[in-house]
Amino acid sequence: MPEKAVVERARKKAREGKSPSTQAGEFVKAEIDKVRKGEHGVRSPKQAIAIGLSEARKAGVKLPPNPNKKAKTTRKTKRKASSETSAKRARASLKALKREPTSTVSPESMSKFSKQAAKKRGPEKRHKAAMKAVKTKGPQELKRAAKKAAHTREMRAHH
User: Fold this and answer.
1) What is the pLDDT of residues 93-123, one digit of tens each?
2) Are 19 and 33 in contact, with CB atoms under 8 Å apart?
3) What percent of the chain has pLDDT over 70?
4) Cβ neighbours for 27, distance < 8 A, ≥ 6 positions apart
5) What is d(CA 6, CA 25) in angstroms, rounded to the nearest whole number?
6) Is residue 36 classed as helix, strand or coil in its secondary structure?
7) Of 32, 34, 86, 83, nearest to 60 (Cα)?
8) Which sign, positive or negative, has the C-alpha torsion 91, 95, 100, 104?
């Protein structure tokens, strides 16, 4: 089950009226921090994000269901009424995760992953996301972002 501090931060975001994806971001961040500390590893940044989203769903964040997960059949549901994972399975999955590398969530690999994900979305959706970000930023943050963008343009012009 997710840590109490993480759940509390997510609930605070919910009270502030933030979107479910923002609330879930707290769980994803906590998962990435766990991997970086070496509590366990993951195969890819995508797996760390998936674990974080799964924990967010368990904690009650109103996220859409996992599109890759099949709905449980009625026979299985009848057989096992408890939604809790058995201790044996929990131990086995943690043991498997401990064998995985922790370098997969380094700042470099996370940056690479987010750039690839953004590229898949296409320029129109990226622009829409940027415009939404502009609306939610305050004047200081906007100024800082503008300076950063100008610096990036300047650096790319030299290459």
Assistant:
1) 889 989 999 899 999 999 999 999 999 999 9
2) no
3) 91
4) 2, 6, 10, 52, 53, 55, 56, 59, 61
5) 10
6) helix
7) 83
8) positive
